[in-house]
Specification:
Layout lengths: L1 H8 L8 E4 L1 H13 L5 E5 L5 H8 L3 E5 L9 H7 L4 E7 L11 H18 L4 E5 L15 H4 L3 E6 H4 L8 E5 L6 H15 L6 H6 L10 H17 L3 E3 L6 E5 L5 H9 L6 E2 L8 E5 L4 H17 L4
Parallel strand pairs: 2-3, 2-4, 4-5, 5-6
Antiparallel strand pairs: 1-7, 6-7, 8-9, 9-11, 10-11
């Protein structure tokens, strides 16, 4: 694991500070419970994976959403304003679920600078925790910017289940930045949080299977073909969405304000679209294209009927 990170990013990650976990969800839960005290705040970048709220509030923390611009990159002015003396951590997710957007190197670096200044101002550590289960599922890019290069007090959470197309097989890790202040104390807190939450050990069978899987990924070209088919088909029908750079989700802007009502209308045509309110923003819907290509092909005539209903074509 350390070798893989070092090869990709030239980081010099110390394997002694990598915790093998039950996927990215296990890594996130452990990190949050290790670092967040009751009443402290965790900034999340909207749109965000809805389970972040469960993890943070389950640890007694407070979720502070920060919105995005029209390209779904974080609103940096809003981010800076959201950082207070109560801020303990920032959760980032790249490539993003639900949008497929990759956090830009400029955005990540700017957030790192803002947090570094805030740490000095408030005299306390603020941690950036990066959720990266889709790190290898990229299309035009060859790699994503690495949080460990952008900010010292950072933790990278990873899962192999997405890169190997093994849904349900939860195995991954969290890695502490080699330059993290009080790294020993943080890692001790991670191990104690894993015990307290019942994550005493990742499945041994899955750990053994990884020995032969390092550096491998599923066939990303299938996801890319599905993305292009769906994105091109929807935009040709007048729908608006930001083209995903990774993962296997597409974030569709609803042609009306009420995404829930639009989702209900889509069901008439046997289209299941997830309203965005649970992801921290209104007016969008998440589509997942990790399905057989034939499913997407069959859906496009139904999307045409939906577009006709709302006067898009």
């Amino acid at each position: 694991m350390a070798e893989d990170l070092n090869r990709r990013y030239g980081l010099g990650v110390d394997p002694a500070y990598i915790h093998v976990a039950t996927g990215a969800a296990g890594s996130l839960a452990v990190s949050i419970h290790a670092l967040l005290k009751a009443g402290e705040e965790a900034i999340v970048l909207a749109p965000f994976f809805s389970e972040y709220r469960v993890f943070v509030e389950g640890a007694g923390g407070v979720v502070v959403p920060v919105g995005a611009d029209e390209t779904l990159q974080p609103d940096l002015a809003a981010f800076k304003a959201a950082v207070t003396e109560k801020t303990r951590m920032v959760l980032v997710n790249t490539p993003n679920n639900p949008s497929g957007v990759v956090l830009s190197e400029e955005s990540l670096a700017a957030m790192g600078r803002i947090l570094t200044e805030a740490q000095a101002r408030y005299g306390q550590a603020i941690y950036m925790v990066s959720d990266e289960p889709y790190r290898e599922l990229l299309y035009e890019r060859t790699a994503i910017p690495c949080v460990l290069n952008a900010y010292d007090n950072s933790i990278l959470c990873y899962s192999y289940s997405k890169s190997l197309s093994l849904p349900g097989e939860r195995i991954g890790y969290l890695a502490l930045n080699s330059r993290m202040a009080e790294r020993d104390a943080v890692f001790a807190a991670v191990k104690e949080a894993a015990r307290a939450l019942g994550y005493t050990g990742a499945p041994a069978l899955m750990q053994r299977s990884l020995i032969g899987c390092m550096g491998l990924t599923a066939d990303v070209s299938i996801y890319k073909h599905n993305r292009d088919l769906l994105y091109d088909g929807l935009t040709a029908l007048g729908f608006s969405c930001v083209k995903p750079e990774g993962a296997f989700y597409l974030f569709l802007k609803a042609p009306i304000e009420d995404a829930e009502a639009f989702s209900d209308a889509a069901r008439k045509y046997e289209l299941l679209l997830v309203p965005s309110d649970g992801f921290g923003v209104p007016g969008y819907l998440r589509l997942a294209y990790c399905v057989p290509t034939a499913t997407i092909e069959r859906s496009l005539p139904a999307f045409r009927k939906l577009a006709e209903e709302y006067g898009l074509v």
